[in-house]
Design goal:
Elements: H1 10-17, H2 21-43, H3 47-62, H4 73-80, H5 89-102, H6 108-129, H7 137-152, H8 166-170, H9 174-182, H10 188-197
């Protein structure tokens, strides 16, 4: 794992480290884009300023290859991923965070729709990249809501999303199970043990 992942939280860095080499870069790019968007929402003093930043990312990542802005390493890395990240995935992820940015209040329905979009963009995309036949949608929603609660606390109005049993988490590709375990309030050593053994 390189310095590029240094701005990710430890569980996400661990998940990237356990991704197969062939898809590791694309998975890292998705998680780092997600973290960048979360930062924009968390730091936006005015929704309009945040929307302008999200619009920049949308335009940059949806532009045709070769015409994307230079100077932003994450945009360059996205371009290097080629077709590994399908068209529309980044737009879906940006739309998820934009829903929260423009909402006066984070209602149950908004959080649920956010979680569907975010979970699909990251979990389902990775599962497809890794060739997994497991349906990652439910686990993605579980992670998206509970991770949002960790980042934003009381701004998330609904209770933690479910109590998925560890056995259902363990059947998923290891990077996804690491992320899901990390939002279950487990200790660092317990998470590392899961990463090493799958248990």
């Amino acid at each position: 794992m390189g310095d590029a992942e240094a701005d990710l939280p430890p569980p996400a860095r661990l998940a990237v480290a356990y991704a197969p080499r062939a898809v590791r870069s694309a998975f890292s790019v998705l998680l780092r884009l997600d973290a960048r968007l979360a930062s924009i929402v968390g730091r936006a003093s005015e929704p309009l300023i945040g929307q302008m930043k999200l619009a920049w990312w949308r335009d940059a990542l949806l532009a045709q290859p070769g015409t994307r802005p230079k100077g932003e390493p994450l945009v360059s890395e996205f371009e290097n991923c080629g077709t590994q990240i399908p068209d529309g995935v980044t737009g879906q992820l940006i739309s998820a965070w934009e829903m929260l940015l423009v909402a006066d209040e984070w209602s149950h329905s908004i959080i649920e729709e956010f979680a569907k979009l975010r979970g699909q963009a990251i979990f389902s995309t990775y599962a497809n990249l890794a060739g997994s036949r497991r349906d990652a949608a439910s686990l993605g929603i579980f992670w998206a809501i509970n991770d949002l609660r960790i980042q934003f606390g009381d701004r998330v109005p609904i209770p933690p999303c479910g109590k998925l049993h560890e056995s259902s988490i363990r059947t998923m590709p290891r990077p996804l199970s690491i992320l899901a375990m990390s939002v279950r309030d487990v200790t660092g050593p317990r998470l590392i043990w899961h990463a090493l053994t799958g248990r």
